[in-house]
């Protein structure tokens, strides 16, 4: 079984097309799936939209209220996956703004079936690509990834911060056990970097799979809190270097 985990905040416009596209993509792979949304105190119609989609698709909705951040949402979703799934199951995480290339899904699943503990869909690896984002966002994201590579000494990783990844059930369960059920302390977007460092340093086997992120597919505004995220990166770098 493939579990999909998607944290969402105010994504009412993007969720319906994303769910239809995911359903088609996973069925084309010949797989069964469960889709877990973590609605993080959205103030638009997101919870109603998800509730309605439950009639036609295998969807569960976990909720935070009020908004608590991406880190808290991922942690809730990971714990739910560990409690509900079993050996052999695969978790794929992605964004709810419909910007991910779903053509990468079969490769993310195959990487786990071929013995990796986790896999990173990678926009900054050789054949990866970012389309339709602003030059400032691209510069910040690229720089953050290069600094992570140097500071955390992880030469084989090119993309540190993306949500788009796959994990084996066994790897996730063991990681939560190893870190006393608290591998994620960061509340914001940087939780993805924090988690990756812990997986890497625990010696887990991984693959990087090139993907294309297309921001033009998103309807509505970006939810990224740029200043908060920059501050979080500096805090993490300082903690590591000092
Ligand atoms: N649970 C939760 N999800 C959030 C929060 N903020 C954003 N998200 C979700 O996280 C995902 C990524 O947010 P985006 O706004 O696309 O951020 P980004 O991809 O870094 O920025 P863009 O390149 O501008 O798209 C989306 O699914 C959002 O709905 C939050 O506070 N809590
Ligand atoms: Mg996005």
The distinct bound ligands, ions and cofactors come out as: guanosine-5'-triphosphate, magnesium ion
Number of domains: 1
Distance between the termini: 43 Å
| Rg over C-alpha atoms, rounded to the nearest angstrom | 17 Å
Indicate the CATH topology.
Spore Coat Polysaccharide Biosynthesis Protein SpsA, Chain A
Strand content: 15-25%
* CATH architectural label: Alpha-Beta Complex
Structural class: alpha/beta
Averaging pLDDT over every residue, what do you get?
96
Descriptive overview:
The protein has 242 residues and is α/β, with parallel strands linked by helices. The chain has a single domain, classed as Spore Coat Polysaccharide Biosynthesis Protein SpsA, Chain A. Helix content is 41%, strand content 19%. The chain is built from eight helices and nine strands. A seven-stranded mixed beta sheet has the order 3-2-1-4-7-5-8, with helices on both faces. A two-stranded parallel sheet has the order 6-9. Helix 5 packs parallel to helix 8. The chain is globular and about 50 Å long. Bound molecules: guanosine-5'-triphosphate (GTP) and magnesium ion (MG).
């Amino acid at each position: 079984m493939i579990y999909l985990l998607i944290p969402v905040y105010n994504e009412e416009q993007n969720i319906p097309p994303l769910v239809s596209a995911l359903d088609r993509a996973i069925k084309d792979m010949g797989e069964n799936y469960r889709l877990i949304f973590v609605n993080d105190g959205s103030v638009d119609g997101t919870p109603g939209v998800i509730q309605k989609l439950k009639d036609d698709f295998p969807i569960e909705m976990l909720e935070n209220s009020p908004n608590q951040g991406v880190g808290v949402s991922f942690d809730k979703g990971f714990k739910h996956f560990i409690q509900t799934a079993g050996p052999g199951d695969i978790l794929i995480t992605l964004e709810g703004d419909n910007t991910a290339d779903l053509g990468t899904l079969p490769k993310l699943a195959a990487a786990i079936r071929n013995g990796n503990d986790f896999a990173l869909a990678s926009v900054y690896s050789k054949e990866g690509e970012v389309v339709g984002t602003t030059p400032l966002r691209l510069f910040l994201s690229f720089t953050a990834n290069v600094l992570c590579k140097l500071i955390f000494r992880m030469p084989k990783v090119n993309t540190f911060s993306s949500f788009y990844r796959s994990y084996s059930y066994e790897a996730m369960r063991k990681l939560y056990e190893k870190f006393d059920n608290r591998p994620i302390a960061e509340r914001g977007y940087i939780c993805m970097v924090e988690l990756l460092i812990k997986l890497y340093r625990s010696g887990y086997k991984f693959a990087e799979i090139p993907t294309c992120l297309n921001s033009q597919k998103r309807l509505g505004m970006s939810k990224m809190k740029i200043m908060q995220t920059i501050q979080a990166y500096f805090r993490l770098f300082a903690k590591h270097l000092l």
